[in-house]
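Researcher: First entry.
Model:
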Amino acid sequence: MSNLTAPVDSAAAKRGAAKRAAQRERGRGFYIYLCAGTVLALLFVLPLLWVIVRSLEPPQLTGEAPSAADFTHMTISNYSTLLISDNVLINVLNSLIAALGTAALTVTVSTMAGYGLARFRFRGAGLVLAAILLAFMIPFQAVLSPLFLELHFFHLLNNLLGLVLIYSTFSLPFGVFVMRNTFAQVPRELVDSSRVDGAGVITALVRVMRPLVIPGMATTAIYAFLYAWTELLQAYTFLTSSTIMTLPVKLFNVMTQQSLGVLNYGYLASGVVIAMVPCIILYMGLQKYYVQGLTSGALKG
């Protein structure tokens, strides 16, 4: 009897040893992953912390080499000057209007265009998509004069609506590409079954497919919002009134207003911190959809 149980015990011991070895290997991989993730997180977080610290220093210290004594001179004078003296909150509101309007318009048009390109078969669909993506490669500077004349003709210069239309134009190629590939991943049987139940094209899009393509819509919204929120040159070109300037234009004017060629890094750092807040809130709110949307835009062609 002991001769029969010996091979069984030996096999069980081998399985146990193999299981412990696999657990050690997984544990080692986890710690490597944790260390690498921590290092990468520090690479992204430390510059943000550095900007926050610099924004709390007096203007005369922000341009000097850092030292431990800087932490004893913390002040909110840069923020108070921007928020009270320069009334930057109006410019924050202007940027929010432009960015939210751009995100809403881009998501709406991209969703409809992506649905049409992914679900309807027509001659030249590939050429249409190629032309849209080709527009993504055209730099703004190349079409500056025609855009200026066009906005002037429609009386949209120095107007946030005109800025929203320009921003949406340059955000649409990316949005259409992502939404077209997102719709292509949705099984066609879902749409066919909804049509059997009597749903039309719009009803199928809104009620059946919309919940399935939210990741792509979130990715498009984040891209369009960040593009409009951080853009400087177009806003600086098409907006001249201080009451409707966006935040990047206002910060550019404030940090150079003291004397020619002199930059106020304290104002710039505090303005960057203010500008980060909406971006962080938006990303934290939509982050669970963001990676899914980028994946859908990258895997399907």
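Researcher: Second entry.
Model:
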Amino acid sequence: MTKEKRAGIAPGVFHKRQRSAFLAGALLCSNVHGMNKNTAEDIVRRATAAFNSGQPDDARQLCERGLARAPGDPILNHLLAAVLFSQGKIQSARTHVETSLAKRPDNAAALLLAARIARAAKDFGGALTRLDRLIAMAPQREMFLEKARTLDQAGLRPQAREAWQAILDVVPQSTEAAARLGRLAWEDGDYAAAVTLLERAAAGDATASVWFDLGLARQDLRDYHGAATAYRKALELKPDLAEGALNLGVALQESGDLDSAMRAYVEAYRLRPQTFGTIAMALTSAPHGRLWIDEASLRRSLGG
């Protein structure tokens, strides 16, 4: 089965933003000018607690209350930037983290947050500038991870591959590095290397995207049973993954199990009716397929 008959997934689509990491660092005390110190510290403490307990709106309101009295406070601006970023309000978050950095330009936690916000805004140059400064100041694992993610998202493939490989060399158990190197190897057509790396990633606490990519690589090596196993694991982790159900159907069909393939196609069609064209092509062009009198009869077989 050719790649054209399979579904693809954008790299990193399941990556989850880590909430509490944005609050690490210098959020333990505040020097809010013109406010009582205990009141300022209380606002920071309460806002942080609200944010970490999944109440970002409460945290935002507390920060805004403090900033109404001291607009330039770097810690409250940093905290509000983290809250806004977690809510996807990129530009507002960027404004507040830049205000914080204007007062504390060498604060590592704020620089890392600014780099993440810049990457989310697709300002990859700005993000890399922040990260290079951070690494020069005090190199830590998270900074190298963030740089690799930024290079990857920017489409700088050689630099991203080098960065991910450097991480994997130092941290052999890095699921993320192995997964990204595996995906890059698959995109380059090196399916055997991709399987090795993705199986290494899947041995840890892997996401659905890792199992999906492993399915793709195994399928390209004509390991249809192995591909089906990987797609099933991806669907177990993410039941609404239409691409996983579709590709599971293709792998099962290629292995000769047409009845199971049809059940997978029914699920793919239920999750995303737009997969109908790909399903129809797979069923009518593969060696192990079926013929339908017309489109309507196929749709009925798929539950449509």
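Model: Note on the second entry: Confidence is low (pLDDT under 50) at residues 10-22, 24-35.
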